[in-house]
Amino acid sequence: MTVELVLGPVAHGGFVVGRHDGKVLFVTGGLPGERVSVEVTERGRRYDRARVVEVLEAVPGRVEPPCAIASECGGCDWQFADQPTQLDLKTAVVEEQLRRLAGIDWGGRVEAVPGGLTGWRTRTRLAVDDEGRLGFRARRSHAIVPLPEAGCLIADHAPYDDATRVAEPRAEVIVAVGTWADTCLGQKLGIGPDPVRQQVFDRTFEVAADGFWQAHREAPEVLTRAVLEGLEPQRGESALDLYCGVGLFAGALIDSGCRVSGVETGNAAVALARRNVPEARFTAAPVERALRDFPDSVDLVVLDPPRKGAGEKVVRAVAGMAPRAIAYVACDPAALARDLAHFADHGYVASDIKGFDLFPMTHHVECVAILRARG
Question: Could you say which residues bind S-adenosyl-L-methionine here (predicted)?
Answer without folding.
Answer: 214, 243, 264, 304
